[in-house]
Write a structure and sequence with these properties.
By secondary structure, this protein is of the alpha/beta class. It has two domains: 12-246, Type I PLP-dependent aspartate aminotransferase-like (Major domain) (Aspartate Aminotransferase, domain 2, 3-Layer(aba) Sandwich), CATH 3.40.640; 249-372, Aspartate Aminotransferase, domain 1 (Alpha-Beta Complex), CATH 3.90.1150.10. Helices cover 39% and strands 12% of the residues. The chain is built from 13 helices and twelve strands. It has helices at residues 12-15, 19-32, 39-52, 63-72, 90-99, 117-123, 143-153, 205-214, 236-246, 249-266, 296-305, 335-343, 355-372, and strands spanning 56-60, 81-85, 102-106, 128-131, 156-157, 168-169, 172-173, 181-184, 198-202, 282-283, 289-292, 344-347. It has a four-stranded parallel β-sheet with strand order 3-2-4-5, sandwiched between helices. A three-stranded antiparallel β-sheet has the order 1-9-8. It has a three-stranded antiparallel β-sheet with strand order 7-6-10, with no helix packed on it. A hairpin with a 2-residue loop joins β6 and β7 (172-173). The protein is globular, with a radius of gyration of 21 Å. The structure holds pyridoxal-5'-phosphate (PLP). Residues 62-64, 88-89, 91-92, 134, 160, 162-163, 184, 186, 198 line the site of pyridoxal-5'-phosphate.
């Protein structure tokens, strides 16, 4: 993995042990000669729905497609407002833009980096139709409060669960609270395909039917097009590989927790360094282990010199992207999003990260603090 002693991500630890199972799945896939929306997709849909605890899971081609269809299936379009976090990955915003609805960004809680019910409440107008809470970095949003508010205000809730497979509040999984919820299986995600894939989960039979139709050219029966649909189908090969991986998801989540706990311990008590918040009565999925410091630039350079790779998720919030220039938001419009973007740094955390490599990351950060921060 390049010239880094500790890369940000390395797939050999997660995929290496699965080579044989992947091989068998691929041979069976070749034998079946069925490539799109077949038995592997159906199996993945029912197993993933069960894992998340929803009645339906509809496989699609990406997390982006999942968000887009979740909005369309609920009739969201021009004239509607949709509340989104100001600090999410751009896909959340793009999905709303595709529908023609108006984006209403809301600054997150500075501590959790997630939307709060009070933040959402302040942004509600008589045109607000929906809200998309994003469980950023795998940290669950306060869904009980958000769902209460949504019931009072008659809002549709679509969770963006792209980063949080396996996160929980109490015993309930994220991605099971909203009316229709989007999941991504992009390769780097906690549950990743070996290519593009996504899903929408819902308990609503009617929405599930709409989604199945919309992902496949708007048809329920072949060559009968009831609505303007899309080609957002999930292919059999990705579903087959996801079927191999899904059964290990809980084991991997435990490993992510062990790794996060080691960082928590090793980096505790460094002045001015903020570690990820803990989840009371629930489970963080630790898609990313994100620290915050106003010395972010210097720390990242320091770690790079020590051949430790880190990434910033995300350096420029969507409201400052050229793609959204027509909205005319001033740069300072979302101060919390700006502050988080300039202080966040994601440390290496992946299945198979050795104790020795992780310790070298901890040691390097401690050395930085001894030299420059005291
Ligand atoms: C990855 C991601 C998406 C998009 O998923 P793709 O499968 O890459 O299309 C959407 N929202 C968030 C928060 C993501 O992290």
């Amino acid at each position: 993995m390049g010239s880094y002693a500790v890369p940000f991500l390395d797939f050999s630890g997660i995929h290496g042990p699965l080579r044989e199972e992947f091989g068998q799945a691929f041979q069976a896939f070749l034998e079946r000669q069925w490539y799109v929306l077949g038995s592997e997709v159906s199996r993945f849909e029912s197993d993933y729905a069960q894992y998340i605890g929803q009645g339906h899971s509809i496989g699609v081609g990406s997390g982006m497609a999942a968000l887009h269809l979740a909005l369309i299936a609920q009739g969201i379009g021009p004239g509607d407002q949709v509340i989104v976090p100001a600090n999410t990955y751009v896909a959340t915003w793009l999905a709303v833009a595709y529908t023609g609805a108006e984006l209403v960004p809301v600054d997150p809680d500075p501590w959790t980096a997630n939307l709060s019910a009070s933040g959402i409440q302040r942004a509600i107008s008589d045109r607000t139709k929906a809200v998309i809470p994003v469980h950023l970095y795998g940290m669950p949003c306060p869904m009980l409060e958000i769902m209460d508010l949504a019931r009072q205000k008659n809002l549709i809730v679509i969770e963006d669960n792209a980063q949080a497979h396996g996160a929980r509040l109490g015993t309930k999984m994220t991605g099971s609270f909203g009316q229709a919820n989007a999941h991504s299986f992009y390769p780097t995600k906690i549950l990743g395909a070996l290519g593009e894939a996504g899903a929408i989960t819902t308990d609503d039979d009617g929405i599930a039917g709409q989604l199945r139709m919309l992902r496949n050219y708007g048809q329920r029966e072949r060559y009968q097009n009831e609505v303007i649909g899309y080609n957002y189908r999930l292919d059999e090969l990705q579903a087959a590989l996801l079927n191999v991986k899904l059964k290990y998801l809980d084991v991997w989540l435990e490993e992510r927790h062990r790794l996060a706990a080691r960082y928590d311990q090793g980096l505790a008590d460094l002045p001015g360094l903020r570690l990820p918040p803990e989840v009371k009565d629930g489970r963080h999925a630790y898609y990313l282990y994100v620290i915050h410091t106003d010395q972010r630039e210097a720390l990242q350079v320091w770690l790079k010199e020590k051949r430790i790779e880190t990434i910033v998720h995300y350096p420029i919030p969507p409201h400052r992207q050229q793609a959204f220039a027509k909205y005319g938001w001033p740069e300072a419009a979302f101060p919390v999003a700006n502050q988080l973007a300039s202080s966040c740094l994601s440390l290496p955390l992946y299945i198979g990260l050795s104790e020795e490599k992780q310790q070298s990351v901890i040691d390097a950060i401690q050395e930085f603090w001894r030299r420059y921060q005291s």
